[in-house]
Design goal:
The protein is built from eight helices and 19 strands. It is α+β, with helices and mostly antiparallel strands. Helix 3 runs parallel beside helix 4.
């Protein structure tokens, strides 16, 4: 039925425009939430959507609807928006390729139902009981989606995704702790998540002041992902590079990180939530080596940006949520480098930061508040840090590092380790 609908849309579109791209998706999810230590409610929902992109005489128009049955009005809207667009160089949508159709992030054991989410919440509650804390909120969600990408060049790919996530926030007097985990399969441990959230609130209680000065800092994957997602990756976007909005634009083939570090986008990563064999436009994906051994090697491109600036797509088109229009993004951003020793000697371990969104995306300058931070010696917590700020520059702080942790954690479209950064400025009392 879905394929028949897509065929009708493409047939109609070919009569009116040069090219047409169709993305049709459907799915279901069940969400349950905690209010203190009680299951407050559970709700299920069905999701459907259609996104159309038309190209006519170099003009690109996009429209989307949550009701695929209204595809004709959606097509009219996409064509109308194309008429208002500025023409650009365009070399065509991709045709079909010989790609493995097996989904990379789908587990048939993931079933969106109330009993599954209830069990996840009960195990989450059990974990928080490891420390004397209160629960302020918590949630569990299970979902499955199917998406079909097709175009007038004969391409038609179908993919399936599943997702399981839990999260809980705890408090002990003025100290809070939040922990979460997400996976595409039923391999997460809600009890461990609850225990970690409770530990963060409990262990942060009664913090001490720390003196102002330079420190070796260990960023958890949570904190690291905020700096990468908010500042560093946008500077690797080809769109920002050519628009003069990237500090890294003049640094191609130059050293931009510690020579032990590599920053890559690995679209076939086995733990990636967004792993894929083709991107949001149907371009085959590949490993994108942004930084190799500290040297900046390439930027990310989708078709629109690549055609405009005479480049090739890196297969980096992603959709902003199901049904969103294609934009430049990452599939699974991750680090490679020496592992181990990140907690040796004296370090300040930072679980999270507050205010990373205020970092200057052009210069990279930032000043953030530490959250659940600890002064550690040889892997042992000596005391929690009550209140302090971390200040510096995102692009500079990766130039001198002290290794990566052996373990990694899924953070949205990233799979990240902890990272040790040297001589960062902490403002205390």
């Amino acid at each position: 039925m879905a394929v028949d609908l897509i065929d009708r849309i493409i047939k109609r579109g070919e009569e009116r425009v040069d090219e047409l791209e169709v993305y049709l998706f459907s799915g279901s999810s069940v969400t349950a939430r905690l209010k203190k230590r009680e299951i407050h409610y559970a709700s299920g929902s069905e999701h459907h959507g259609l996104s159309l992109r038309v190209i006519h005489e170099g003009r690109i128009g996009i429209s989307a609807t949550s009701n695929p049955e209204r595809w004709d009005a959606c097509l009219d809207a996409a064509i109308a928006s194309a008429r208002l667009a500025t023409p650009q160089d365009w070399a065509g949508l991709p045709g079909p390729g010989d790609l493995d159709p097996a989904p990379l992030n789908f587990d048939p054991e993931v079933t969106p139902d109330a009993e599954t989410t209830r069990e996840l919440l009960l195990r989450l509650l059990e974990g928080t009981g490891a420390y004397p804390v209160e629960i302020t909120s918590g949630s569990a969600e299970v979902s499955r989606y199917t998406g079909i990408l097709a175009n007038s060049s004969g391409l038609c790919y179908q993919d399936q995704e599943s997702s399981v996530s839990v999260g809980v926030e705890t408090i002990m007097e003025q100290s809070t702790g939040y922990e979460f985990e997400t996976s595409w399969k039923m391999d997460i441990d809600p009890r461990e998540v609850g225990e970690k959230a409770a530990y963060l609130a409990y262990s942060s209680h009664g913090g001490r002041e720390i003196g102002t000065g330079p420190y070796d800092v260990v960023l958890s994957p949570v904190a690291l992902s905020q700096f990468l997602g908010g500042v560093y990756f946008p500077a690797l976007s080809g769109k920002n590079v050519h628009a003069g909005r990237s500090r890294l634009a003049p640094s191609l083939s130059q050293q931009v990180m510690d020579r032990t570090l590599s920053l890559i986008d690995e679209p076939l990563h086995p733990r990636g939530l967004s792993s894929c064999r083709w991107d949001g436009e149907g371009t085959p994906t590949r490993r994108v080596n942004f930084v190799e051994k500290g040297i900046l090697h390439e930027f990310a491109y989708d078709l629109k940006t690549a055609y405009r600036y005479g480049k090739e797509s890196t297969g980096s088109a992603v959709r902003g949520g199901h049904g969103g229009s294609p934009t430049i993004g990452t599939h699974t951003l991750t680090f490679e480098g020496p592992r181990g020793g990140v907690l040796d000697d004296e370090v300040v371990h930072i679980h999270d930061v507050v205010g990373a969104h205020t970092a200057n995306p052009l210069t990279g300058d930032f000043s953030v508040e530490l959250s659940n931070a600890y002064f550690m010696r040889d892997g042992t917590v000596e005391f929690p840090i009550r209140k302090a700020m971390l200040s510096g520059n995102v692009f500079d702080m990766f130039r001198e590092t002290g290794g990566l942790s052996p373990g990694e954690r899924v953070m949205g479209s990233m799979v990240l380790p902890e990272i040790r950064l040297k001589n960062l400025a902490i403002i205390g009392n």
